[in-house]
Amino acid sequence: MLVSEDTPRETSRVESALRQKLFKRDRLRLAVAKKMADLNLDAIFYSQEFRQEERRRFGDDGFETIVERVGRLEQAIGIYDLKQFSAG
Asked: Which domain, by its residues, includes 53?
């Protein structure tokens, strides 16, 4: 016989176990979502921090200004055209 007298009790036990698993799953999902949000906020924070340091060291135009200066220096000393250093 597949159905026993304990079926309601057994059903209740299974439902309880399922609720616990779903609760744990939902807590895990929330924890993962929070961690991802924290990481994104950290990335934004560090990005802003990086940009502030860049401006402090290199001025308002930061990296772009330095790239232009390096390009002018390379032209001045004759190493701007990389083809002269490659075979072909």
From this structure: 7-85
Residue 1 lies in a domain: no
**How far is 54 from 51, CA to CA, in rounded Å?**
5
Distance (Å, whole) CA 34 – CA 87: 53
The per-residue pLDDT for range 9-29, each reduced to its tens digit, is: 877 888 888 888 888 888 888
Could you tell me the pTM of the whole model?
0.39
Residue 2, domain member (yes or no): no
- Could you write out the DSSP letters of every residue in 19-51? HHHHHHHHHHHHHHHHHHHHHHHHHHHHHHHHH
Is residue 23 within 8 A of residue 15, CB to CB? The reply is no
